[in-house]
Amino acid sequence: MNGVILAAEGGVAADFSAEPVLASVVKAVLIVVFLLTSVLFAIWFERKVVAKMQLRPGPNWHGPKGLLQSLADAMKLLLKEDVNVTRADRVVYLLAPMLSVSASLLVFAVIPFGPTVTIPFTDFSTPAQLTDFPVAVLYILAAASVGVYGIVLGGWASGSTYPLLGAVRSTAQVISYELAMGLSLVSVFIMAGSMSTSQIVNSQAQIWWFIPLAPAFVVYVISMVGETNRLPFDLPEAEGELVSGYMTEYSSMKFAWFFLAEYINMLNVSAVAVTLFLGGWRAPVPDGFLGDALNTGWLPIVWFLVKVWAVMFFFVWVRGTLLRLRYDQFMIFGWKVLIPVALGWVVVLGGVQWALTVAELPRSTFLFAALGVVVLVLLPMMFWPEKRRRPEPAEPETIDAFAGGYPVPPLPGQKLPASERFGKEVAGSDQ
Amino acid sequence: MTPDMAGMTTSGGEAFLFWVLAPLMVLAALGLLFVRRAVHAALCIVFVMVSLAIMYIASSAPFLGVVQVVVYTGAVMMLFLFVLMLVGVDASDSLTETIRGQRWIGLLLGLGLAVVLIGVVSQAAFRPGTPLTEDQVANPVGLARVLFGDYVLAMETVGVLLVTAAMGALMLTHRRRLEPKRTQRYVAEQRVKALPEGGTLTPLPAPGVYAQTNAMDVPALGPDGRPLEHSVSRVLRIRGQEKAAPASLVETGPAGEVSTVRTGTDGGEDA
Known about the structure:
The complex is a heterodimer.
Chain A: H1 2-8, H2 21-53, H3 69-79, H4 90-106, E1 116-118, E2 125-127, H5 136-157, H6 161-192, H7 197-202, H8 214-227, H9 239-242, H10 252-276, H11 299-321, H12 327-358, H13 363-383, E3 397-398, E4 414-415
Parallel strand pairs in A: 3-4
Antiparallel strand pairs in A: 1-2
Helix pairs in contact in A: 2-3, 2-10, 2-11, 3-10, 4-5, 4-10, 5-6, 6-8, 6-12, 8-10, 8-12, 10-11
Chain B: H1 3-8, H2 12-34, H3 38-58, H4 62-85, H5 102-123, H6 139-150, H7 152-173, H8 184-193, E1 220-221, E2 227-228, H9 234-239, E3 250-252, E4 258-260
Antiparallel strand pairs in B: 1-2, 3-4
Helix pairs in contact in B: 2-3, 3-4
């Protein structure tokens, strides 16, 4: 009953009204299986790609091309001794990794893998998505915010210094970057006119949102890396500083849970990026190409997976390329750059949408007006008095470059005397 | 089920959900009162909040439910937890009374509140809920129309008020910078300047002699085999918790000088 009411309103494109319970259960199980196998693959994928970038072979021992390496690692983790810290708060210590994993498993429930598909050899049609409702994207944010509890509680319950520091860092980081992320998603809501994932994918038939909403997409991509605690933003785990942050005191399967949650979260944010900005399951061809044959049936699932793994490749690429930021730089970047940019972009987009849809200005008028605004902003900037220059540093004192018979380098604020050979012809230089 | 019937009764699934969640919520709410540790109490509140959100969603108010989790669980409780966390794992509430007779005052006020609440609840009439009809608009859209259409002034006023409060908090905690900021360049220049006075350019050596121990309180050995005192944390040195380097590595020479005993094969493996 609720499903009918919700589907009838709020612009949810997928129709779940005739969905039997069994279909939902099967889909849920399939999603969990998909996520677990994807994580095993993702670990291998990451190690292999990073290895290629660093000119080394990477895992190549277990199975063809080392594909079974992560399976072996998982088995090892399962069989390891489960160490419980004496000073830990038992219940919370156990609860934290479970919370992390279960929150990360929630997100894929509203991600559309494809349009309505028909099960082979039957007439049964169903959307390739577990569920969808008018506030599906907000639900994703809610699941992410519950996942932070796993990190915070894990760090606190360990009763140890490094985990606590890691947890504090992580909380501050995830909360700050969630704001920027939410703001960047708002522009998609404005354009799509809905917060339902299936409707957002449908709204991208003409153009994928990452082109018209490029600034929001850039903000999202940066904040998604911050949100998942990955390099260059892996400050909560920073090995050189915090051993491994909030999971330092975890071993065996409990550690594996945190690890699993981290990789599932990578898949989550990638899937959200694909669904909201990169056309979801839509084929990378113009609308109506081949009579939409590429966008119907089971094929869209392939497009979706290809796009998700492209974003995952981007994650690994960034990890292989960039260094870790310093914590204060990272927070300043989040609060003083990302959030204002995202906020300003939402305001600009709101203005544009209002001018084009509510005020119904003709395009030419609108473009001239926009040009006028840009000129009005730029003109004062051109004639703005230049900032007062910093006072010139005092004339550097000249030092004895051979004090005590040794060559002495100048300290900051000092200057070497002019070389005696300056301007002289070097003997035999013009041979 | 006809539409008007749907308003009066709950579906079987919803009733089941309620009877599973409600007792757990009551337990968690009681837990808030009776657990010793502040973090456990916070967790109890989180549980109640999330269950409440699930109930909202079950009563076809998904927007309310999701916002409950995002705002209250994700932001407000997280801030609480953030502060509590720094208190440490072993801290529990002290039960000494700071105000004389506060228990009795609290009990009296609680009784008063209970009387008021019971009075209000017993007077309230519960009209049967009516489900949304086809022509009513969806959850977020309808809410947005009410908030930003009918009550836009109140909404903006509250927004300005909150921003003012945040600005006030910032102003109160803001400290004027009295000295120039220590930038990375400044620190590097200071290090170079301190070189003639015996400073070092590089970070201090890490403690621990890695072949035999990796403890924080054992000094590292320099290239000449002498223990490096400044490799151990200053705090440990002041507290006197520093240990000596492993005796097997350091030996006092005949002149009272410390030198390293070279034991084992020293790079002679290849030969």
